[in-house]
Amino acid sequence: MSEASYELGVVCVNGQPGQPDAFMARLALLLLASSVQPPKAVLLIRDSDGDSRRRLGLEQARDDRRWPFPIIIGVAEPKRECWALTGFDPKNPEETARLQASERRLSFHPVRDAHRLDAREHGAKNDAKVALEELTRGDKERERACLEDTSLSSLAARGGNTGLTEYLKEIRERLVPVLSGHSQGP
Predict the structure, then answer these.
(1) In sequence order, what are the residues at sequence separation of 6 or more whose Cβ sits closer than 8 angstroms to the Cβ of residue 186?
(2) Tens digit of pLDDT for each residue in 21-72?
């Protein structure tokens, strides 16, 4: 357990200033922990938007105390669309052509190098939302299939720079034991 102080929304944990998202995550965790029926687990998932301190802030909130549930952190680098892109495998010649066109437009492979899609402006050349839209044609079911139909080993292998590999590891280590009934506690 750590020493924490809270002033004007700023979190200090073990004498360190709170990083982005630490305060709001801690408030959410306190609310969940004090509920009549606390959840069996909590997933804190967010885009980094290019700010690595966001993961640190969520970790500060998780490490603030012993919570009555495991907390799984997922931070998409830089956007959640990059996670879906890592799972895109062309299913037909048309999708293969779209992937090749996207690669030519970007000058890099949008599946292998999804983390490079870091535009701050919507619609910019390297916007992850635009790349995903190009490949899936805006079909939400096709986007969902990128994550659900691709093997976990492929997602983990491709997702190292997008934060997906780390998230899958947290799922395996912190959530699977709870769901399988083999949890040793939070």
Answers:
(1) 66, 67, 68, 69, 70, 71
(2) 999 999 999 999 999 999 999 999 999 998 989 999 999 999 989 999 999 9
Instruction: Say how many CA atoms lie within 13 Å of 67 toward its Cβ.
Output: 28
Cβ neighbours for 157, distance < 8 A, ≥ 6 positions apart: 165
- pTM for the full model? 0.85
Structure tokens given for 19: 């990083």
Residue spans of beta strands (DSSP E) within the chain = 4-7, 10-13, 16-17, 42-47, 71-76
One-letter amino acid of 179: L
The residues, any chain, with a CB within 8 Å of residue 12's CB and separated by 6 or more, are 4, 5, 6, 18
